[in-house]
Amino acid sequence: MLLLVYLQSHRSASFETAVEMGEQLAQQGREDIPACTGCHGGSGEGNRGLGYPRLAGLHPDYIRKQLRDFARNPLDIGVKVDAIARDYTKTPRIYKDLTVYSPGIRSDAIMNPIAKALTPEEIDNLSEYYARLPFKARPVAADFQTLENGRELAARGKPEYMMPRCSACHGPNGEGFGAIFPPLSGQPPQYIINQINKWQRGERDNDNLAIMKNISNLLTDGDKKTIAAYFDNMSYEVNQ
Predict the structure, then answer these.
(1) pTM of the full structure
(2) What CA–CA distance (Å, rounded) separates 57 from 236?
(3) pLDDT tens digits for range 127-168
(4) 178: left (phi > 0), else alpha (psi -120 to 50), else beta?
(5) pLDDT tens, 65-120?
(6) pLDDT digits over 184-197, tens only?
(7) Residue 136 bridge partners (DSSP)
(8) Distance, CA of 141 to CA of 119 (rounded, Å)
(9) How far apart (Å, rounded) are the C-alpha atoms in residues 134 and 136?
(10) Judging by beta carbons within 10 Å of its beta carbon (0-12, 13-18, 19+), is residue 136 exposed, middle or buried?
(11) What is the 3-state secondary structure (H, E, C) of the chain?
(12) In degrees rounded to 5, what are phi and psi of residue 167?
C-alpha cells in the first residue's frame, strides 16, 4: 500500500514537472525554437486574424501526435504524389493487416522545422501543458443562411455523396471526441478552412483512415466557410 502511494506521488510530481517545463518552453522558447506564444497566444487561445490554432484544452495525445507528424519526413520511396492525391495508389501508405494507415505527415513551413528541433521529452511536456490550460469561446454572430448551411453539414453531411456529418466524429457541438477527433468549436475559422485546403492539396495526410482527406475532397469553397462560421457560433469551454 505504501509503495502504491509512493508511486502515485512520484507520477504526480513528474507530471507537474513536465507541465512546468512545457510552460517554460511555450512562453520563452529556446535556442532554435521560438516561443509558442508568438503564434498560439499567451494562453494557447490561438490567433483568429492569422488563423493559428488554439492549443489550450486539446487532448494531450492529439497535440503529441500532431507535433510528431510535423517532425516526420515524407516517405522516400520514389512515389510522386499528386497535388490533390485522389489516386491513393500513388500515395505512400503503411499497411498493417487489413487496415490502411496514413504515414502521418503534416506540411507547414513554420511548424516543420520547429517540430524537428523538439526532443521527445519536449513534445510530451508541451502536450501536457497545453492540454491543461483553460479556454472559453463566445459565439460569433453570422447571418441566418450561413448558419443554416453550416448546421446542415454538421448534422447531416452530404449523404448523396456518402459524406458523413461532422458531428459524427467531432461531437454534436463540435467539442471533439478523445485523442483522435479534435474540437472544432473554439478554433479560428480561418484555421479550419486552411486545414481543409491542405487536405485537398495533399499537404496534410495524418488523419485516421484518411477520413478527412476523403471528406475534404467533397467540400466546396462555400462549404468550408459555412462550416467554419457554424462552429465559430458555438459556445465552448474546457478546463473551466
Answers:
(1) 0.85
(2) 11
(3) 999 999 999 999 999 999 999 999 999 999 999 999 999 999
(4) left
(5) 999 999 988 765 444 555 555 555 555 555 444 444 556 889 999 999 999 999 99
(6) 999 999 999 999 99
(7) 237
(8) 41
(9) 7
(10) middle
(11) CHHHHHHHHHHHHHHHHHHHHHHHHHHHCECCECCCHHHHCCCCCCECCCCECCCCCCCHHHHHHHHHHHHCCCCCCCCCCCCCCCCHHHCCCEEECCEEECCCEECCCCHHHHHHHCCHHHHHHHHHHHHHCCEEECCCCCCHHHHHHHHHHHHCCEHHHCECCCHHHHCCCCCCECCCECCCCCCCHHHHHHHHHHHHHCCEECCHHHHHHHHHCCCCHHHHHHHHHHHHCCCEEECC
(12) -65, -15
105: left (phi over 0), alpha (psi -120 to 50) or beta: beta
Give residues with Cβ within 8 angstroms of 73, minimum separation 6: none
Give the closest residue to 226 by CA, choosing from 179, 177, 193. Answer: 193
Rounded CA-CA distance 194/222 in Å is 13
Place of cell 508541451: 126
